[in-house]
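Box 3.1 A note on notation
Throughout this textbook, protein chains are presented in two layers. The first layer is the amino acid sequence; the second is a token string describing backbone geometry. Keep the layers aligned when reading.
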Amino acid sequence: MYLSRFLSLHALWVTVSSVMQHYPSVWGHYDVCKTQIYTEEGKVWDYMACQPEARDMIKYVKVTLDPPDITCGDPPETFCAMGNPYMCNNECDASTQELAHPPELMFDLEGRHPSTFWQSTTWKDYPKPLHVNITLSWNKTIELTDNIVITFESGRPDQMILEKSLDYGRTWQPYQYYATDCLDAFHMDPKSVRDLSQHTVLEIICTEEYSTGYMTNSKIIHFEIKDRFAFFAGPRLHNMASLYGQLDTTKKLRDFFTITDLRIRLLRPATGEIYVDEQHLARYFYAISDIRVYGRCKCNLHATGCKEENKRLLCECEHNTTGPDCGKCKKNYQGRPWSPGSYLPIPKGTANICIPSISSIGTNVCDNELLHCQNGGTCVNNVRCHCPPGYTGILCEKLKCERDVGGCSPSSAPAAVLWGPAASLATLLALTGLLLF
């Protein structure tokens, strides 16, 4: 009896090994994703988790304004120079190209002279608040890799909220509050990212660092991605393995740097002083000359490429995955539940490939790249297994006596299948998974 069981286990292991040999790396470490790195020996290929290169995501953005008629120029109006209520000879006119300030000028090439920028209407309806929502949408899940940078042509707003969405704008969460006086504006104590730590990196803060009046060198607002990365990767981001390990194991941290949409909520324009000068309301408005958002397509570590198709970003999925984010297994590759790829173990990662479904065998019953006939069966034109006497089933995995009344007796069962269900394809795949994982 013990000899028979030993022989059964041995036969099963031989079968499992024959299946495994065709997937030595894709079930474990990545084999299709690589990048060139520089070492003392020069440039070499390094295999690692699959992810597209970071890029300028503003190239693919769609922008909407609320209210939609908040852009200046229709009808034409004059506005005052920044900080000077007596220089009011500037004009915004949507019908004249040189005087128009449409939303797309938030994203055009910088370095032009005179500078180009989007501009809102002036605060002519004071004391009614001058509120503007600028929504940036990608119709794709994005992983941020660098600071979000907003450059104002006018003074930076006295009050502003940066918000994010992870569900294409259905719900929103604050990313950061900005104010000249955080306590007065949002009932929050002022903080900077430098006040945070690994344990508080997800805290939503209000900062006064980017809300100072009209200084000409103070036009930029940041949302500091890299400073948060530095809590895990070091001040110069040399230890990215530590960051990747944290992102892999902490979903809240990973989601924090992931967006589908951004919303800039402008709540109060720059006044430069405590009180609003009601005699010169044409000096108060919003104007943005540049927005920068760098990131990569989220592909769940199942792709190295992300392409634009019909004005939409799509991951070029590997590992038998599909979907805009490689978020599911392809048809006929659902032999186990879909799982994202993993950065772990560092540095090679684990691909978590989608494996063939039992039902996907189809006409390719005994393709040597996938599955083999069992118990001495022979493959005929890849479409069927020719089974030896005493065996049946798609892969010759069943005893004929199992179909008879009374089933198989121990004496009638060959040693290789004495373990009964273990020889079935479903159990074989499941056992293979257990052995691998």
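Confidence is low (pLDDT under 50) at residues 1-27, 410-437. The first strand starts at residue 34 and ends at 39.
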